[in-house]
Amino acid sequence: MTTMLSSDLPLTKIGRGKVRDIYAVDDDRLLLVTTDRISAFDVVMGETIPMKGAVLTQISAWWFNQLGGVVPHHMISADIAEIVEAIPALKEHRTALAGRTMLCRRTTVFPIECVIRGYITGSAWKEYAASGTLAGEKLPEDLQESGRLVPPIFSPATKAETGHDENITIARMRAIVGDETAYTLESMTRAVYTQGEEIAREQGIIIADTKFEFGRDAQGRIILIDEVMTPDSSRFWAADAYQPGRPQPSFDKQPLRDHLDAERRAGRWNGEAPPPKLPDDVVAATSARYLDAYRRLTGTDLVVK
Question: Do the domains 109-241 and 12-106 match in fold?
């Protein structure tokens, strides 16, 4: 499978994120193409990570199939044969799109990242360690790094096209989307995370935190969209190596983060674009992490046809 830095399809491109290219199929459907681009510290790297796009797409598809009875979602198909049959114009692009493409229902997207934290780590831990708060709201005084949060904390954020998302209070979220919608988004977030965390734990993976996106479809329903509990949108930890009181190794882009941290400490990178060139061994190690996450979560190797 060849890697993909960007896509160019005979459809109208209506969006380009850090990783995904979004195309309009018609008034009711979108095509999401997950490239092999990778970002860290909110900077997109110049190199691609082999199989990354397929891993993200197929993990999301696996979750959508698991969660169909929990919440409605936007996936129509992630099978390239079904997608090409539905959109014949993509026939010549089948090989490039295999594994990395999802046909979805169109929605009006809520401008909120629905973050839920089952464990306190990352930026949440940094704020808590400094002030005892998360998004300015007080938390219990006896938490330790990577400690489990019971119940999980719903911690919304505003979506940023560039730069960092901003953690916000639930009161601010209500002001943005309205009380009823805010309640529904939090309830759906908790339902998906509860089910997903239980399933992942059975596979030896702790989902420490994750973020979801939701949209309203043409029928007025609020549905789950975008990617779901992937190594890009979540923090995956090995359950058998979990030890609170310290940072935990993760299954995602940790080799990449470690390399970039070393570059910053050495004064060779200031943390802004353009990023430093990635060595081949870092690219290979990062690709292996993504494939390992898919294997551990689903119980099978990723095969792209």
Answer: no
